[in-house]
# Entry
Amino acid sequence: MEARIPSIACIGVIGRHNNPLHISLFPAIGPNSTQEPRDKLAFTFMLNSSLDIFEARMPSKTSQDFGLLHALDERIALYGWLTNTGVKLVIVVDMEGRIAPTPEAAKIGVLGLRGGDLLPAFNALQTAYVRLLQNPFYVPDDHDPKLVRGHRALEIQSPKFIREVERTGQAWYPGIVTI
Amino acid sequence: MSRALQSEPIPPPDPLIATSCFDFLLIELVPLAQRITDKIHARDKVLKEELDRSLNIHRSVPPPSSTTEPPMKPDGSTTGAPSTAAGLDDETREALYFRLNNMGYRVGQGLAERFSTNRPRPVTPLETIKFICKDLWPLLFRKQIDNLKTNHRGIFVLTDVRFQPLSRVSVDRRAGPRAAEELVRRAQVYLVFPAGAIRGALSALGIEATVQGETTEIPTATFQIKTKGAKA
# Structure
């Protein structure tokens, strides 16, 4: 049995009216670098389950970092971030997502995550979202269920944003300083 | 060029630009919006005439001469030099204000997203308005709002006694008091974009509001913010 370390399993970007804007999934890396794909529906439910926790903590929290939202089982834990503009960023961490590259790294897997470990990931995601807002061809009101008439896809289509989210999810490991 | 950009995914975090750029942009924005509005109006007019004509053709027996007539009119007659903001009819002014306000709205949304990071979340509407006064205003106009009044029921009045875009406008003193009135009337249009920016920033921070920019004396500007569900 190889030592395993945490990795990001899923990143969810959720709009102000709790509408999903973007969901990225990251497969767990098994032995011989086989990939176990994630079930999208299951992760959508997990993200959904975290929304109430945001709601409950919102009055008492004034910082944007919501920290650990809840730990689902011994592997899956959800961490949250709420921007001042009401966009929720949720990172689902798989505590045994990938195999430890070195014996030193394996110790982190045993010790568990510290509070600030996900900060670089959240910062990278927020920067990506700010960059998206700076794109004049992205109209935020087109992604707001209260302002869009009829049934249209509300998800973010910007390839640059999606690429940046994917990169963040793949680059993160416990103890990373900047992404 | 684009390849070189792609190989380096993260550009420098905050490229520096001259603060005057925004002033220049603001000056140019109003005539530009006016030209666009005029163009669209002229085009609509031509299209409408065309439609009317084709309807007439279909209704009556088509005379051979009118069918061969070119559908496009020479547009030199309809799109002249852009008229000044003061001498506009109400419909054009409305369209111009709408266009400028929406430009400002989008800019405000982006600014709020960018510059509300690393700040405590505003909980009450008053805190959000304070964010506009103390954080957003210096970014846009290099000074804070001078006065904030509120009735605590959803109406806020922001006063800037030396509003940057109005600080350099001038008036011909020899023309007497009429000229000053005219100036105030003309300056009005330069407040639409900033009002839109306030509306956009508020909307991004979760407050729906209407914002009205007004000036009674150059270079003072007041912005009345009426949040949704406000009581007078």
Q: What stands out?
A: Chain B has a mean pLDDT of 81. Helices of chain B lie at 2-6, 20-59, 64-67, 90-115, 125-141, 177-187, 192-204. Chain B has two domains: 23-82, 101-232.
